[in-house]
Amino acid sequence: MQRLILGMLLMVGQSINPLAAVPVEYVAVKSNVAYSAVTALEYAMPDDTVSYGADPLQTASIWFAKGPFARESKLVVLVHGGCWLNAYDIKHTYALSTALAQAGYAVWSLEYRRTGDAGGGWPGSLNDVEAGIQRLTSYAPKSFYFENTVVIGHSAGGHLALLAGGKIAELRGVIGLAAITDLAEYSRGQNNCQQASKGFMGGSVSELPEQYLQANPITQPLHKHTVLLQGDADNIVPVTQATALKVPLVMQQGAGHFDWVHPGSPAFQTLLLELKTAFQLDTATQ
Protein backbone atom coordinates (compact mmCIF):
# COMPACT_ATOMS: atom_id res chain seq x y z
CA MET A 1 0.00 0.00 0.00
CA GLN A 2 2.82 2.40 0.87
CA ARG A 3 4.44 1.83 -2.52
CA LEU A 4 1.11 2.47 -4.24
CA ILE A 5 0.67 5.76 -2.39
CA LEU A 6 4.22 6.78 -3.28
CA GLY A 7 3.59 6.00 -6.94
CA MET A 8 0.46 8.14 -6.91
CA LEU A 9 2.37 10.95 -5.22
CA LEU A 10 5.08 10.83 -7.85
CA MET A 11 2.56 10.99 -10.68
CA VAL A 12 0.82 13.95 -9.10
CA GLY A 13 4.14 15.69 -8.49
CA GLN A 14 5.19 15.27 -12.10
CA SER A 15 1.83 16.33 -13.51
CA ILE A 16 1.94 19.73 -11.78
CA ASN A 17 5.41 20.45 -13.15
CA PRO A 18 5.19 21.40 -16.85
CA LEU A 19 8.92 20.82 -17.35
CA ALA A 20 9.05 17.43 -15.63
CA ALA A 21 8.18 15.42 -18.74
CA VAL A 22 10.65 17.27 -20.97
CA PRO A 23 14.29 16.64 -19.99
CA VAL A 24 16.53 19.67 -19.87
CA GLU A 25 19.60 19.21 -22.04
CA TYR A 26 22.92 20.47 -20.69
CA VAL A 27 25.55 21.05 -23.35
CA ALA A 28 29.07 19.99 -22.47
CA VAL A 29 31.31 22.89 -21.47
CA LYS A 30 35.00 23.28 -20.77
CA SER A 31 36.27 23.34 -17.21
CA ASN A 32 36.48 26.42 -15.00
CA VAL A 33 33.03 27.83 -15.70
CA ALA A 34 31.87 31.23 -14.46
CA TYR A 35 29.08 31.76 -11.95
CA SER A 36 27.14 33.64 -14.63
CA ALA A 37 27.20 30.49 -16.79
CA VAL A 38 25.54 28.56 -13.96
CA THR A 39 22.80 31.12 -13.33
CA ALA A 40 22.01 31.23 -17.07
CA LEU A 41 21.17 27.51 -17.22
CA GLU A 42 17.66 26.19 -17.78
CA TYR A 43 16.07 24.02 -15.13
CA ALA A 44 12.90 22.23 -14.10
CA MET A 45 10.97 23.62 -11.16
CA PRO A 46 10.71 21.46 -8.00
CA ASP A 47 7.99 18.84 -7.88
CA ASP A 48 7.15 19.85 -4.34
CA THR A 49 8.32 22.19 -1.57
CA VAL A 50 7.77 21.59 2.13
CA SER A 51 8.56 23.52 5.31
CA TYR A 52 10.79 22.24 8.07
CA GLY A 53 10.41 25.30 10.30
CA ALA A 54 8.33 28.41 10.91
CA ASP A 55 10.52 30.79 8.90
CA PRO A 56 9.68 31.12 5.17
CA LEU A 57 13.31 30.34 4.35
CA GLN A 58 13.20 26.98 6.15
CA THR A 59 12.09 24.89 3.18
CA ALA A 60 13.07 21.76 1.32
CA SER A 61 12.43 21.54 -2.43
CA ILE A 62 11.99 18.10 -3.95
CA TRP A 63 12.77 16.86 -7.43
CA PHE A 64 11.58 13.29 -7.91
CA ALA A 65 13.81 10.89 -9.80
CA LYS A 66 13.02 10.84 -13.51
CA GLY A 67 13.88 8.88 -16.61
CA PRO A 68 14.37 5.18 -17.35
CA PHE A 69 17.02 4.82 -14.61
CA ALA A 70 14.99 6.48 -11.86
CA ARG A 71 15.92 5.16 -8.43
CA GLU A 72 13.34 6.85 -6.24
CA SER A 73 14.64 5.19 -3.09
CA LYS A 74 18.06 6.82 -3.58
CA LEU A 75 18.01 10.37 -2.27
CA VAL A 76 20.49 13.21 -2.56
CA VAL A 77 20.25 15.99 0.02
CA LEU A 78 21.72 19.15 -1.52
CA VAL A 79 23.02 22.09 0.53
CA HIS A 80 23.78 25.08 -1.70
CA GLY A 81 26.68 27.45 -1.18
CA GLY A 82 27.13 31.19 -1.54
CA CYS A 83 29.57 32.22 1.21
CA TRP A 84 26.76 31.74 3.77
CA LEU A 85 25.31 35.04 2.48
CA ASN A 86 21.61 35.68 1.87
CA ALA A 87 22.56 37.31 -1.44
CA TYR A 88 22.92 33.78 -2.86
CA ASP A 89 19.89 31.56 -2.59
CA ILE A 90 18.87 28.04 -3.57
CA LYS A 91 17.94 28.93 -7.15
CA HIS A 92 21.50 28.90 -8.49
CA THR A 93 21.50 25.13 -7.86
CA TYR A 94 18.14 24.42 -9.54
CA ALA A 95 20.00 23.23 -12.65
CA LEU A 96 22.12 20.86 -10.56
CA SER A 97 18.98 19.46 -8.88
CA THR A 98 17.33 19.08 -12.27
CA ALA A 99 20.30 17.19 -13.69
CA LEU A 100 20.60 14.91 -10.66
CA ALA A 101 16.90 14.05 -10.91
CA GLN A 102 17.32 13.31 -14.61
CA ALA A 103 20.25 11.05 -13.67
CA GLY A 104 17.82 9.00 -11.60
CA TYR A 105 18.15 10.41 -8.07
CA ALA A 106 15.51 12.03 -5.94
CA VAL A 107 16.78 15.40 -4.72
CA TRP A 108 15.96 17.10 -1.41
CA SER A 109 17.43 20.60 -1.76
CA LEU A 110 17.53 22.78 1.34
CA GLU A 111 17.01 26.49 1.65
CA TYR A 112 18.14 27.88 4.97
CA ARG A 113 18.68 31.15 6.82
CA ARG A 114 22.02 32.74 6.00
CA THR A 115 24.10 35.73 7.07
CA GLY A 116 21.83 38.74 6.73
CA ASP A 117 18.69 36.78 7.62
CA ALA A 118 17.16 36.88 11.09
CA GLY A 119 18.36 33.69 12.76
CA GLY A 120 21.03 33.04 10.11
CA GLY A 121 24.78 32.81 10.59
CA TRP A 122 26.35 30.67 13.28
CA PRO A 123 24.83 28.47 14.59
CA GLY A 124 21.43 29.16 13.02
CA SER A 125 22.41 28.13 9.49
CA LEU A 126 23.71 24.75 10.68
CA ASN A 127 20.64 24.24 12.87
CA ASP A 128 18.48 24.81 9.79
CA VAL A 129 20.41 22.30 7.69
CA GLU A 130 20.19 19.70 10.44
CA ALA A 131 16.45 20.28 10.82
CA GLY A 132 15.99 20.11 7.05
CA ILE A 133 17.74 16.75 6.87
CA GLN A 134 15.68 15.38 9.75
CA ARG A 135 12.47 16.55 8.05
CA LEU A 136 12.97 14.18 5.12
CA THR A 137 12.13 11.17 7.28
CA SER A 138 8.61 12.51 7.94
CA TYR A 139 7.88 13.45 4.34
CA ALA A 140 4.62 11.71 3.40
CA PRO A 141 4.37 8.82 3.03
CA LYS A 142 7.79 8.39 4.67
CA SER A 143 9.37 7.75 1.31
CA PHE A 144 12.99 8.52 2.19
CA TYR A 145 15.37 6.92 4.67
CA PHE A 146 18.80 7.92 5.94
CA GLU A 147 20.37 4.64 4.86
CA ASN A 148 19.50 5.50 1.24
CA THR A 149 20.60 9.15 1.52
CA VAL A 150 23.80 10.92 0.52
CA VAL A 151 24.28 14.52 1.63
CA ILE A 152 26.22 16.77 -0.73
CA GLY A 153 27.12 20.39 -0.18
CA HIS A 154 28.90 22.97 -2.28
CA SER A 155 31.36 25.53 -0.91
CA ALA A 156 29.87 27.09 2.26
CA GLY A 157 27.08 24.53 1.86
CA GLY A 158 29.79 21.89 1.90
CA HIS A 159 30.99 23.25 5.23
CA LEU A 160 27.46 22.87 6.65
CA ALA A 161 26.97 19.45 5.03
CA LEU A 162 30.17 18.10 6.59
CA LEU A 163 29.13 19.26 10.06
CA ALA A 164 25.52 18.08 9.79
CA GLY A 165 26.42 14.77 8.15
CA GLY A 166 28.87 13.97 10.92
CA LYS A 167 25.98 13.84 13.39
CA ILE A 168 23.86 11.28 11.49
CA ALA A 169 25.70 7.98 11.30
CA GLU A 170 22.78 6.30 9.51
CA LEU A 171 23.39 8.31 6.33
CA ARG A 172 25.01 6.47 3.46
CA GLY A 173 27.62 9.17 2.99
CA VAL A 174 28.60 12.82 2.67
CA ILE A 175 30.23 14.47 -0.34
CA GLY A 176 31.81 17.92 -0.08
CA LEU A 177 32.10 19.89 -3.33
CA ALA A 178 34.81 22.54 -3.03
CA ALA A 179 33.90 22.46 0.64
CA ILE A 180 35.28 24.78 3.29
CA THR A 181 36.87 22.36 5.75
CA ASP A 182 39.08 24.56 7.94
CA LEU A 183 36.97 27.58 8.79
CA ALA A 184 39.54 29.21 11.05
CA GLU A 185 42.21 29.15 8.35
CA TYR A 186 39.74 30.11 5.64
CA SER A 187 38.63 33.19 7.57
CA ARG A 188 42.17 34.54 7.46
CA GLY A 189 42.12 34.79 3.66
CA GLN A 190 41.47 37.91 1.64
CA ASN A 191 38.94 37.01 -1.05
CA ASN A 192 35.32 38.08 -0.60
CA CYS A 193 34.09 34.65 0.49
CA GLN A 194 36.91 34.24 2.99
CA GLN A 195 36.12 37.65 4.45
CA ALA A 196 32.45 36.66 4.72
CA SER A 197 33.47 34.01 7.27
CA LYS A 198 33.72 36.63 10.01
CA GLY A 199 30.22 37.88 9.28
CA PHE A 200 28.90 34.33 9.38
CA MET A 201 30.56 33.65 12.72
CA GLY A 202 29.94 37.09 14.21
CA GLY A 203 33.63 37.81 14.76
CA SER A 204 37.19 36.67 14.14
CA VAL A 205 38.99 33.56 15.36
CA SER A 206 40.78 35.54 18.07
CA GLU A 207 37.47 36.96 19.28
CA LEU A 208 35.50 33.69 19.17
CA PRO A 209 37.97 30.79 19.52
CA GLU A 210 35.48 28.34 21.06
CA GLN A 211 32.80 29.05 18.47
CA TYR A 212 35.28 28.47 15.64
CA LEU A 213 36.22 25.11 17.15
CA GLN A 214 32.56 24.10 17.18
CA ALA A 215 32.01 25.37 13.63
CA ASN A 216 35.13 23.86 12.10
CA PRO A 217 34.86 20.51 10.27
CA ILE A 218 38.56 19.88 10.84
CA THR A 219 37.96 19.80 14.61
CA GLN A 220 34.58 18.04 14.58
CA PRO A 221 33.60 14.38 13.95
CA LEU A 222 32.77 13.57 10.34
CA HIS A 223 30.69 10.85 8.77
CA LYS A 224 32.76 7.71 8.23
CA HIS A 225 31.99 7.81 4.49
CA THR A 226 33.05 11.37 3.70
CA VAL A 227 34.57 12.26 0.32
CA LEU A 228 35.81 15.61 -0.94
CA LEU A 229 35.73 16.70 -4.60
CA GLN A 230 37.95 19.66 -5.42
CA GLY A 231 39.06 21.53 -8.53
CA ASP A 232 42.71 22.48 -8.80
CA ALA A 233 41.80 25.80 -10.49
CA ASP A 234 39.48 26.96 -7.70
CA ASN A 235 40.29 30.53 -6.67
CA ILE A 236 37.49 30.83 -4.09
CA VAL A 237 38.11 27.74 -1.97
CA PRO A 238 41.80 26.84 -2.32
CA VAL A 239 43.11 23.29 -2.67
CA THR A 240 44.57 23.50 0.84
CA GLN A 241 41.03 23.33 2.21
CA ALA A 242 40.54 19.93 0.57
CA THR A 243 43.87 18.55 1.74
CA ALA A 244 43.31 19.71 5.33
CA LEU A 245 40.96 16.81 6.07
CA LYS A 246 42.22 13.23 6.24
CA VAL A 247 39.44 11.82 4.06
CA PRO A 248 39.35 10.51 0.47
CA LEU A 249 39.89 13.32 -2.02
CA VAL A 250 39.19 13.45 -5.76
CA MET A 251 41.07 16.28 -7.48
CA GLN A 252 39.47 17.48 -10.72
CA GLN A 253 42.08 18.84 -13.10
CA GLY A 254 41.29 22.29 -14.48
CA ALA A 255 38.04 22.64 -12.53
CA GLY A 256 37.11 25.93 -10.92
CA HIS A 257 34.75 26.64 -8.07
CA PHE A 258 31.45 26.53 -9.97
CA ASP A 259 32.09 23.47 -12.15
CA TRP A 260 30.48 21.27 -9.48
CA VAL A 261 27.10 22.98 -9.92
CA HIS A 262 27.17 23.08 -13.74
CA PRO A 263 25.70 19.86 -15.21
CA GLY A 264 27.58 20.33 -18.47
CA SER A 265 31.02 20.26 -16.87
CA PRO A 266 33.44 17.33 -16.60
CA ALA A 267 33.26 17.83 -12.82
CA PHE A 268 29.56 16.96 -12.84
CA GLN A 269 30.39 13.61 -14.43
CA THR A 270 32.88 13.02 -11.61
CA LEU A 271 30.14 13.81 -9.11
CA LEU A 272 27.85 11.24 -10.74
CA LEU A 273 30.57 8.60 -10.46
CA GLU A 274 31.10 9.40 -6.78
CA LEU A 275 27.36 9.21 -6.11
CA LYS A 276 27.23 5.82 -7.80
CA THR A 277 30.08 4.65 -5.60
CA ALA A 278 28.45 6.03 -2.46
CA PHE A 279 25.22 4.17 -3.11
CA GLN A 280 27.13 0.95 -3.66
CA LEU A 281 28.77 1.14 -0.23
CA ASP A 282 27.88 -1.49 2.33
CA THR A 283 26.20 0.34 5.20
CA ALA A 284 26.05 -2.69 7.49
CA THR A 285 29.07 -1.45 9.45
CA GLN A 286 27.83 2.09 9.85
Automatic annotation (TrEMBL):
Q: Is 4Fe-4S among the key words of this record? A: no
Quote one Gene Ontology molecular function term: hydrolase activity
Q: Which Pfam families match?
A: BD-FAE
Occurrences of domain BD-FAE-like (ranges): 72-246
Q: Which keywords label this protein?
A: Hydrolase, Signal
List the InterPro entries hit by this protein, alphabetically.
AB_hydrolase_fold, BD-FAE-like_dom, GDXG_lipolytic_enzyme
Span of the signal peptide: 1-20
Is the Iron-sulfur keyword given for this protein?
no
- Give the protein's recorded name: Lipase
Q: Which organism is it from?
A: Paraglaciecola hydrolytica
What broad taxonomic lineage does this protein's source fall under? Answer: Bacteria, Pseudomonadati, Pseudomonadota, Gammaproteobacteria, Alteromonadales
